[in-house]
């Protein structure tokens, strides 16, 4: 029996040395040390030995089993290290190769327009104010000279949540809230960018949700000439130094007098074309002097203070600035459209 054990030991060690994978090692472990292996069979036959031979054979079996186990573990460590080194060699990165360009995101065109307008007016001493998109009727209408049942409310078909809550139809409520905070003391010089909502059918030039940037200045001795000068600076900054503006009489409940503001057409230089519908001018925004009723409701003395306000549609500006022909492009997230505004690589 001792000779048979020695023979099994030599066979096992040779098989371990010749193995080339961890799987082969596991097969060898099962073949020699498993429940059905030859060493286990030898142990089962120890009952036939004499009482003197049993301890001696038991000790020999344990030594042989431990040696085979030890060789398997050593060989397994070697094979695993070799596998790691092989994998490292196959995955070596040549750091001298040029890197692959990584596609990065960029600001949405509307975000760019809003930030550009913000930078312009901040440079002129304005601050940026924000307010809730779900607004109360008082700030959205009544504080802006639009009492209940006022016919001008029909100009802004609204999304009402309750009788007193609605999605704001303009960012003017931010102006009303800011004036109220000042408690009748000027100056006030703010712009209010944000989303607004109106019940409108979506088409190439209309959307039920759009971005608006409103401006408000209140102080002593503010005149229409201050409004015109401010809008001229805005037009030249956004559209080019060669652009001119004109003011046309209009009506807004919260300003008096009120004006529509046009810029000269960049395509025909005022001669008339299909873009400007033959007029040489393109409408861009509405503005006017703050109505005395609005000043009084916010706590300002309308005999001491005056002011002007204007409202800019960010989509309108972006369409003119970038030559976009459909407002829906800004919201459909077509990657082909968005890529046109990628930051160039240098």
Keywords for this structure?
elongated; seven-stranded mixed β-sheet; alpha+beta; 346 residues; 2 domains; 40% helix; BirA Bifunctional Protein, domain 2; three-stranded antiparallel β-sheet
Write the layout of secondary structure elements.
Blueprint: H1 2-18, H2 22-33, H3 38-44, H4 53-90, H5 109-123, E1 127-128, E2 134-136, H6 137-140, E3 159-160, E4 165-167, H7 172-182, E5 188-197, E6 209-219, H8 224-239, E7 245-252, E8 255-264, E9 281-290, H9 292-297, E10 306-313, H10 314-322, H11 335-338
Parallel strand pairs: 1-5
Antiparallel strand pairs: 2-4, 3-4, 5-6, 6-10, 7-8, 8-9, 9-10
What does this structure look like?
GO terms for molecular function: ATP binding; catalytic activity, acting on a protein; magnesium ion binding; phenylalanine-tRNA ligase activity; transferase activity; tRNA binding. Belongs to the class-II aminoacyl-tRNA synthetase family. Phe-tRNA synthetase alpha subunit type 1 subfamily. The protein is built from 11 helices and 10 strands. By secondary structure, it is of the alpha+beta class. It has 2 domains: about 1-90; about 110-340, BirA Bifunctional Protein, domain 2, CATH 3.30.930. The protein has a 7-stranded mixed beta sheet with strand order 1-5-6-10-9-8-7, with helices on both faces. It has a 3-stranded antiparallel beta sheet with strand order 2-4-3. A hairpin with a 2-residue loop joins strand 7 and strand 8. The protein is elongated. The model has no long low-confidence stretch (mean pLDDT about 85).
């Amino acid at each position: 029996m001792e000779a048979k054990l020695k023979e099994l030991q030599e066979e096992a060690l040779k098989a371990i040395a010749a193995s080339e994978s961890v799987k082969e090692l596991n097969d060898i472990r099962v073949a020699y040390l498993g429940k059905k292996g030859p060493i286990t069979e030898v142990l089962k036959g120890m009952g036939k030995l004499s009482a003197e031979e049993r301890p001696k054979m038991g000790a020999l079996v344990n030594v042989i089993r431990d040696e085979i186990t030890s060789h398997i573990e050593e060989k397994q460590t070697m094979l695993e290290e070799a596998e790691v080194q092989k994998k490292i060699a196959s995955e070596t990165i040549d750091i001298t190769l040029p890197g692959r360009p990584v596609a990065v995101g960029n600001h949405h065109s509307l975000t760019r327009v809003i930030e550009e307008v913000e930078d312009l007016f901040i440079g002129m001493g304005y601050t940026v104010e924000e307010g809730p998109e779900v607004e109360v009727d008082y700030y959205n209408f009544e504080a802006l000279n639009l009492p209940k049942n006022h016919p001008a409310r029909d100009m802004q078909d609204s999304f009402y949540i309750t009788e007193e809550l609605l999605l704001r139809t303009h960012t003017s409520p931010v102006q009303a809230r800011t004036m109220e905070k000042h408690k009748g003391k000027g100056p006030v010089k703010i712009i209010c960018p944000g989303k607004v909502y109106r019940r409108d059918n979506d088409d190439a030039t209309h959307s039920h949700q759009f971005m608006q940037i409103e401006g408000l200045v209140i102080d002593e001795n503010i005149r229409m000439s201050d409004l015109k000068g401010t809008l001229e600076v805005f037009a030249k900054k956004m559209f080019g130094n060669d652009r001119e503006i004109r003011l046309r009489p209009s009506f807004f409940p919260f300003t008096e007098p009120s004006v529509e503001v046009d810029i000269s057409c960049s395509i025909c230089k005022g001669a008339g074309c299909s873009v400007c519908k033959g007029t040489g001018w393109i409408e861009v925004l509405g503005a006017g002097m703050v109505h005395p009723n609005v000043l009084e409701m916010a706590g300002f003395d309308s005999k001491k203070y005056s002011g002007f306000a204007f409202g800019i549609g960010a989509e309108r500006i972006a369409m003119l600035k970038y030559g976009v022909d459909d407002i829906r492009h800004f919201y459909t997230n077509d990657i082909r459209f968005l890529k046109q505004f990628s930051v160039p690589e240098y």
